[in-house]
């Protein structure tokens, strides 16, 4: 559920986490889920199916997205999109200058332009069965435009356990990779994006 606190903006749940206000109703759970799935698909996977013009860096007009959403479900308004983005704790989307884009998760061909990461290490989790081939071939994206790395070991474990029960986690020398010319971008506190990580930058494995 999405509600809006007059003082602290949109939030998910029954009460504002900042002041315990109930706020004003925006979307119920079902419509929040449906609109979220629609926006994810539109901005990450199939804008062309919706005849949604997209810039090469992933931006689309928020007005055009609102029109496309209303054609699909009838009820969405532009303020519903703003509320969904503002209340999203994972920071999956960004809005600027009347445009919106997904920060990560694209399967379509986009060229994102986030700053280079200034940390030393990154982490990436896989199933134990994948370890040997990655040590030989490096880490490459699967079904996505960019490879998604985690900034912490804890986050890498959290992400990997969605796909495998006992993940193996690679520690990656991102600083050296960037010094050698690899483009490793920071999206938010948890996620980095890059084209690939050659095996030479893998430092150790946590199992």
TrEMBL record:
NAD found in the keyword field: yes
Keywords on record: NAD, Transferase
GO molecular function: NAD+ poly-ADP-ribosyltransferase activity; tRNA 2'-phosphotransferase activity
Gene3D superfamilies reported for this sequence: 3.20.170.30, RNA 2'-phosphotransferase, Tpt1/KptA family, N-terminal domain (1.10.10.970)
BP terms from Gene Ontology: tRNA splicing, via endonucleolytic cleavage and ligation
Entry-linked SUPFAM superfamilies: ADP-ribosylation
UniProt KW NAD keyword: yes
E.C. number: 2.7.1.-
Entry similarity comment: Belongs to the KptA/TPT1 family.
Function: Removes the 2'-phosphate from RNA via an intermediate in which the phosphate is ADP-ribosylated by NAD followed by a presumed transesterification to release the RNA and generate ADP-ribose 1''-2''-cyclic phosphate (APPR>P). May function as an ADP-ribosylase.
Protein name, as recorded: Probable RNA 2'-phosphotransferase
Species assigned in the record: Methanolapillus ohkumae
Lineage: Archaea, Methanobacteriati, Methanobacteriota, Stenosarchaea group, Methanomicrobia
Gene assigned in the entry: kptA
């Amino acid at each position: 559920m999405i509600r809006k606190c007059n003082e602290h903006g949109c939030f998910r749940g029954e009460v504002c986490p900042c002041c315990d206000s109930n706020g004003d109703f925006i979307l119920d759970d079902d419509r929040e889920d449906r609109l979220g799935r629609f926006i994810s698909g539109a901005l990450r996977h199939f804008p062309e199916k919706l005849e949604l013009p997209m810039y090469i860096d992933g931006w689309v007009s928020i007005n055009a997205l609102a029109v496309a959403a209303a054609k699909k479900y009838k009820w969405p308004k532009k303020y519903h999109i703003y509320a969904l983005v503002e209340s999203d704790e994972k920071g999956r989307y960004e809005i600027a200058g009347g445009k919106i884009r997904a920060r990560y998760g694209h399967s379509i061909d986009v060229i994102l332009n986030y700053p280079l990461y200034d940390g030393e290490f990154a982490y990436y989790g896989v199933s134990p069965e994948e370890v040997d081939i990655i040590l030989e071939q490096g880490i490459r994206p699967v079904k996505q435009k960019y490879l998604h790395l985690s900034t912490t070991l804890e986050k890498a474990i959290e992400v990997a356990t969605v796909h495998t029960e006992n993940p193996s986690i690679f520690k990656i020398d991102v600083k050296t990779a960037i010094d050698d010319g690899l483009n490793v971008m920071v999206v938010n506190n948890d996620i980095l994006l890059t084209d690939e990580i050659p095996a030479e930058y893998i430092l150790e494995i946590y199992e």
